[in-house]
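Q&A log
Question type: sequence-to-structure
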Amino acid sequence: MAMLDRLTNLANRHYLERELDVSFEAKKRYGTPFGILFMDIDNFKRVNDVYGHEVGDRVLQFVAGTISANSRPFDLYGRWGGEEFIGIVRNVTEYDLRRLGERLRSLVGESYILMEEKPLRVTISVGATIVTDSDSASTLARRADDLMYQSKAAGKNCVTLG
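Response status: OK
Response body:
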């Protein structure tokens, strides 16, 4: 329980940071590539402002559920903080990481929760990057975060790979 985010039942930030360290060690020892997806719910503040924090919590849960239900069993997804999620995607190429990011982005955008019998939809902006030999956990997360902000600047609801 100490490793799970109570609201979303995904890994919490502490667990994600530990697993990033494990992934770096596997890359160093065995050459196992990995990447991360940094995902942020677009216009989340507006959801909270218009519908309230209880609905915001439901949106976080549904996005987390969509991500979790459509992930590979050996990858790890968690809540980084607020409306941000990170996926640690193991044994992946840039091409596959982009495809996975696009797939999750599309699935979240096509899904919805019902609010007063009307669909409430949200989208996510995604930053995707593969680890390099010169990376640390902090440089990798920062790069993915910067790429996610590039997705926001490009109009939101897109994936930026770098």
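Response note: Residues 13-30 form the longest helix (18 residues).
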